Amino acid sequence: MAELSTIARPYAEAVFASARDDQEALASWSTLLSELAQLVSIDEVREALTDPRLNAAKRIELFTGLVKSPLSAAARNFIELLIDNDRILVLPQVSEQFELLKNELEGTALAQITSAFPLSDEQVQQLVAGLEKKFGLKLKPVVTVDSELIGGVRVVVGDQVLDTSVQAQLARMRDTLAA
């Protein structure tokens, strides 16, 4: 959904620019944007926010009433801006883009590790240590299990993919034999 990320980017950049010099503000916005993105992902909330019978003021009141975290004036203004511009549904993409900007500032990246079998904490730490040397970044691992890989791991860091799974090796062998 390139279109949604294109729409979300200016909002994420604006929030990031307002918080970039304050670590506490960065963490606060990160947490809040994640919560807002989760709220918007709920089907009933999405329906209510797009209900044509509700005006912008009612939508703002409804949405801010669902937020558990205390809202600063800036956060409330941000929500109002998104609702007024009919962009509230891009909050998941805004949150994602904000995290990318935050990680870039911190010199970190998200490492999505998919393994054929569950990994112990020690195995994850060893894998992350090797990957950090390879990528030259501090990595935040997110580990999932996918038995279809048969064996090995697939790691995605940003737009780079390191696939050492048996499934990928079999696919390469198939392609070589077919050529």
TrEMBL record:
Membership in a protein family: Belongs to the ATPase delta chain family.
InterPro entries: ATP_synth_OSCP/delta_N_sf (IPR026015), ATPase_OSCP/dsu (IPR000711)
Subcellular location, record wording: Cell membrane; Membrane
Protein function: F(1)F(0) ATP synthase produces ATP from ADP in the presence of a proton or sodium gradient. F-type ATPases consist of two structural domains, F(1) containing the extramembraneous catalytic core and F(0) containing the membrane proton channel, linked together by a central stalk and a peripheral stalk. During catalysis, ATP synthesis in the catalytic domain of F(1) is coupled via a rotary mechanism of the central stalk subunits to proton translocation. This protein is part of the stalk that links CF(0) to CF(1). It either transmits conformational changes from CF(0) to CF(1) or is implicated in proton conduction.
Keyword Iron-sulfur: no
Major subcellular location class: membrane
Tagged with keyword Methyltransferase: no
PANTHER family, sorted: ATP SYNTHASE DELTA CHAIN
Highest taxon, organism lineage: Bacteria
Pfam families in the cross-refs: OSCP
Keyword annotations of the record: ATP synthesis, Cell membrane, CF(1), Hydrogen ion transport, Ion transport, Membrane, Transport
Record's protein name: ATP synthase subunit delta
Membrane topology annotation: Peripheral membrane protein
